[in-house]
């Protein structure tokens, strides 16, 4: 592992500084460099661009194993470092799911060989025995898709997580109401070609009911909750009331922040995702981000063939790793959000929630995970630059100003100028 010096770095507080990186760690942060500091010829001039802690995404779907026609650990993690991310946490719904010790260890082995960035794995919840066995491998958290289970089964699953000292990540949609709505709406054949009906089938009420139930169960079992991709202002009010009684964190996604279900009118079925895009009576916007803890991309690619079907048959999911920072930094440049808040939600807070003790800060002794930003670079979001296998985005051709230009993962340059480079990566614990 080579040592590296980053000079003329601008911190979020606008101070210009220099980083001396040794053995993958930030060894020293200095306002000026002495000749005695220059123990390596590997010196990179950052040219007073901003540096922020390497981005951490708690919510990706890399589809590997079992669904590698959609994405692989290689292509997904290449997209990650290209987008400024140095750590990702993969969801358990692969084939087979990571809900047994064997499956968990198998996926960890795949990631260890293919990943271009550091990684964690969320585990599924199958049985008490499986949860206890997987705990020995130190998952980043446990994940339940609430839309797949009846209430009694859910309560039992929550009980399995008690005393595990790990966050329980939840996809919050009520199973019974989703199934009822789908059945009723599918009775009308005309709805097959009306994408908006998918938003009605998985309505805001399905989220509100599920979150209320999750809060109830978390109180019973004293569980730390992490609610994925919260989409409505009404749910935010419910969470706000619950925060005094339970440990609860909530995640926003770029597509739910920046889009409404009017996107279907021009982008069509490819904008389908779970939970769906909301209408303006319910949706969250940039101004609501102050109430959220993190931004997860919910990077969930499919093939175009799988996406370009009818309302009910098209697969739900949007790639997000390579557009998120462009979208956020554009809003920083418009003074709609502070760079400090972006750093908090994309790095500092995820590291805190998932107990990544050496990540999430630019500080001496921390992993040298650095994302370099050029706040003046502008352009349009271009599919030709994507490393993900999911070659689509509802943000295609959207103008941006501000982007990440270099990604450093534990002292290795993982991405620079739209090129990505393989290096030794590691599991986060």
How would you sum up this structure, described in words?
This protein is an alpha/beta fold and 429 residues long. The protein has 13 helices and 17 strands. The protein has an 8-stranded parallel β-sheet. Strand 8 (118-124), helix 3 and strand 9 form a beta-alpha-beta unit. Helix 7 runs parallel beside helix 8 (233-242). The longest helix is centred in the middle third of the chain and has 18 residues, at 204-221. The chain is globular and about 75 Å long.
Blueprint (SSEs and pairs):
Layout: E1 4-10, E2 16-22, E3 25-30, E4 43-45, E5 50-53, E6 55-60, H1 73-82, E7 85-90, H2 101-114, E8 118-124, H3 128-135, E9 141-145, H4 151-161, E10 168-171, H5 175-186, H6 196-201, H7 204-221, E11 225-227, H8 233-242, E12 248-252, H9 254-258, H10 263-267, E13 294-295, H11 304-307, H12 324-333, H13 339-353, E14 370-380, E15 399-409, E16 412-416, E17 419-420
Helix pairs in contact: 4-7, 7-8
Which range best describes the helical content: under 10%, 10-25%, 25-40%, 40-55%, 55-70% or over 70%?
25-40%
- Chain-averaged pLDDT: 97
Provide a count of the helices. 13
Strand content: 15-25%
Strand order in space, largest sheet: 6-7-8-9-10-11-12-13
Coarse shape? globular
Q: What is the H/E string? A: EEEEEEHEHEHEHEHHHEHEHHEHHHEEEE
Spans of at least 5 consecutive residues whose pLDDT stays below 50 are none
Strand elements, count: 17
Q: Specify Rg, calculated over alpha carbons.
A: 21 Å
Q: What structural class do you assign from the helix and strand content?
A: alpha/beta
CA(first)-CA(last) distance = 20 Å
Give a quick account of the main beta sheet: strands, pairing sense, barrel closure. Answer: 8 strands, parallel
